[in-house]
Amino acid sequence: MLLIRIESLSKKELEHIAVQEGVRDASDLSREELIDTLKEIYEVEQDDDPSKGEVNIQRRFVTWLTDYRGDGSEVTSLPGVEALPELYSETSIHVLTKNATWLYCYWSVSPLDAEKFDQKWPGWSLLLDVRLSDGGVEYDSFDIAVSPSDNEWNISVNKGHGEARVHLVVEAPDGSREVIASSQVVTLVSCYWLEHPEMVASSVDLLRRELSLITNKEGQVIPCETVQEIVQEIRKEEGL
Questions:
Q1: How large is the angle between the packed helices 11-20 and 31-46, nearest 10 degrees?
Q2: Quick check: 45 and 58 in contact, CB under 8 A?
Q3: Which domain holds residue 39?
Q4: Distance between CA atoms of 39 and 24, rounded to whole angstroms?
Q5: Which of 144, 162, 187 is the last residue of a domain?
Q6: Total structural domains in the chain?
């Protein structure tokens, strides 16, 4: 919540806050009267006696830009506030690294582009073209089929080294393809313990600490691809 000086608010903002606080005919009050009225409301609440059994959380001077308790129907009437569109006018795709084995990808297809493909390729579909490389050399690539209504996806990567890039691709029913957006290149995160399994194998305390991060409240280890790989590496080291 953003704390602000009540004296710095415009009359329009003061009116909205006054309505929230139940002030009748707030629009008929002057800016100075609104400030005095709101100060009286907050001062009374600050002086409430907790021993009476009614403890009120102290309210702060806020605007509807930072905190509102209504249904939002009047938010856009505030100066400089606009309703965000459900879809944006630009087709784009973005990728974030979650951990050593997962990427998070989200995208948006603009209404204009969607309309264009409806006319060009009726029944078109979307693909995520995932490209993994290391030192400029591509070592893995694969496609993920997604629905035109999807806008996010978690992508599993087996090798946590090098870089990743994802292209948003439109595919026609006849197999024709067109790349409509490309993400920035992101650096993959390597798993230290996969590269040094002997350290985990040699320290019981270290192994317990790492396993505790993926253990549920019943004490069962949550299925995890990375842990399975660590166990396999340890077994190789031990000759099992």
A1: 40
A2: yes
A3: 6-77
A4: 16
A5: 187
A6: 3
Q: What is the rounded radius of gyration, in angstroms, for the C-alpha atoms of the chain?
A: 28
Report the distance separating Cα 183 and Cα 106, nearest Å: 10
CA distances from 81 to 27, 34, 61, 64, 90 (A): 19, 22, 19, 10, 21
Residue 87 lies in a domain: no
The reply to whether 83 falls in a domain is no
Beta pairing class for 186-187 and 163-171: antiparallel
Same domain (yes/no): 97, 173:
yes
pTM: 0.50
Q: Do residues 168 and 179 lie in contact, with contact meaning Cβ atoms separated by under 8 Å?
A: yes
Q: Which tokens in the block code for residue 187?
A: 């650096």
CATH number at residue 134: 2.60.40.10
Taking the chain (240 residues) in consecutive chunks of 10 residues, what is each chunk's mean pLDDT? 60 82 87 86 57 43 44 52 56 88 89 90 94 90 90 82 92 93 90 70 69 61 66 72
